Every structure is written in C-alpha cells, then in structure tokens.
Amino acid sequence: MDLREKQIIVTGGVNGLGRAMVQALVARECNVTVFDIDVAGFDELQKTGVRCVACDVTNYKQVNAAVEEFAGAPDVLINNAGILYSEPLVKIAEDGPKLHAYESWDRVLRTNLSSVFYVTAPVVAKMIVTRTKGIVVNIGSVSAAGNPGASAYSAAKAGVHALTQAWAKELGPMGIRVIAIAPGFMDTDSAHAATSETALRETIKRVPLRRLGKAEEVAAAVVAAIENDFFNGKVFELDGGLTV
Predict the structure, then answer these.
(1) Mean predicted lDDT score pLDDT of the chain
(2) SS (H, E, C) the chain
(3) Do the Cβ atoms of 134 and 146 come closer than 8 Å?
(4) CB-side neighbour CA atoms (13 Å) of 160
(5) Is residue 243 one of the residues assigned to a domain?
(6) What is the CATH number of the domain that holds 132?
(7) What is the pLDDT of residues 156-204, one digit of tens each?
(8) Residue 1: which pLDDT band, with cuts at 50, 70 and 90?
(9) CA geometry: angle 168, 177, 81, nearest 5 deg
(10) pLDDT digits (tens, 9 = 90+) for 39-96
(11) 155 Cα distance to chain centroid
(12) 47 within a domain of the structure (yes/no)
C-alpha cells in the first residue's frame, strides 16, 4: 500500500508508541485521526494536521459514535490503545494470601482486548460497505507467550494475537488484511512506570542487543508491515531477539 493521502485511525495516539506511529504517518503525508481520552495532548497533535477525537475505546457506544462520524471508510486502523499492568495471581502477605484483584483484571482486559474488538467491528463494516481494501494493525506483545506476574496483560495480548489470525482468515477474501506487531520491552514512559528499574536491567541482560527498543522502531515496523501487501495474519515480533 502506498501510504500517501491514506485515511488512518490510530487509537491511543497521543503518547508513547502511538505518538511515534502518528509522527511517522504524518511524515508520509497520511491523513491521521487519533482516538484518545488524553485530550490535554490534542492541541500539539492538531498543529501537525492530525484530527483528534475524544473517545474512550473501552466504551462501545462512544466507539460506534466516533466511527460513525468518521467521513467515509479509513484505509488503515491501528489498534494501539492499551495499558501495561503487572500483578501476581497470588501474593503472599503477612495477613495471608492476597488474590489478583478482579477489578484490575477487568480493566486490563477491557483496555487491551475488548477495545480492539469494539473499534475493529464498525471500522471493518465501513471498509466492507465501501469495498475498501483496508488494513487492521493490532499492537500485541511478546508477553502474549506468558509473562509471569502479568496474568491479565498476557491474556489480553494473547487474545489480540488470536483475533489477528481469525480476522485475517475471515476478512482476507474481501481484500482486508489484518496484522499484528508484538513489541518486546520498550524504552517508553509507560514501561518505566509499570516495571521496576531492576527488572528492566535484568531484561536488558536477556536481550541479545543489550538494550530496550525505541518507539520509533515500532513505528517503522508498523509502516513496513502496512506497505507490504502480502503480509497478512502474522505477528511481527520486534524484541531485539529476546524470544529467540
């Protein structure tokens, strides 16, 4: 796909990996719309020509309204919105075992998995009606293989990978590609906030390149995957060799 002038929706595009993707797409003369709840960051993005829509992607009604207001059908949807979260299944405390909170389980699953379903369904419906040979890009994670201490996050990302494969088979005959990018441990504010520096240092020791990934590298992988018209139904792991 030639990205120039394409209509692209990026969820969670104000900060972190999403922001890097938006910048890379704007540099390629794409028409980018961001769905995000961080309205404080809209002004700066709008100065670069990005359209910003206040939308909580965990709210099905808000998502449907936002997609309905989108003029025409997007050529590309990037499901990037999500949160990093770690909590052990059972934590042993002085007063006895403490179980993983069901509230945090629900929140992580809604944000990282349900949101992908909520946004993709109405967007793909528009693609089908307009016969747009579009692309859905899901941001997964190498944690989908199972990251100890991150039950909810690992389960959500495994679900994202499964949806990628199911939808690729379902939508491929209509010319719609569905792909996933699975970053490893990245040097982002959210990663540093969710993971102790000690744990990150230990992770770096296990990465053959001996460093964390950069947001710009994930953005470059997203662009490359979109541009390759035969890349479909696969999860592109970008982890510096961590899972080799």
Answers:
(1) 95
(2) CCCCCCEEEEECCCCHHHHHHHHHHHHCCCEEEEEECCHHHHHHHHCCCCEEEECCCCCHHHHHHHHHHCCCCCCEEEECCCCCCCECCEEEECCEEEECCHHHHHHHHHHHHHHHHHHHHHHHHHHHHCCCCCEEEEECCHHHHCCCCEHHHHHHHHHHHHHHHHHHHHHHHHCCEEEEEEECCECCHHHHHHCCHHHHHHHHHHCCCCCCECHHHHHHHHHHHHHCCCCCCCEEEECCCCCC
(3) no
(4) 38
(5) no
(6) 3.40.50.720
(7) 999 999 999 999 999 999 999 999 999 998 888 878 877 778 888 888 8
(8) very high
(9) 90
(10) 999 999 999 999 999 999 999 999 999 999 999 999 999 999 999 999 999 999 888 9
(11) 14
(12) yes
Sequence length of the chain is 244
| Cα 54 to Cα 66: distance, rounded to the nearest angstrom | 8
As given in the structure block, the two tokens for residue 179 are 């792909």
Q: Is residue 1 part of a domain?
A: no
Query: Does residue 77 lie within any of the structural domains?
Result: yes
How many domains would you assign to the chain? Answer: 1
pLDDT at 244: 66
Residues designated catalytic: 153
**Per-residue pLDDT at 207:** 86
**What is the domain range of residue 129?**
7-238
Q: How far, CA to CA in Å, does 175 sit from each of 106, 132, 135, 171, 196?
A: 34, 8, 9, 7, 43
At which residue do the structure tokens 């059972």 appear? 90
Given this model, what pLDDT does residue 54 score? 98
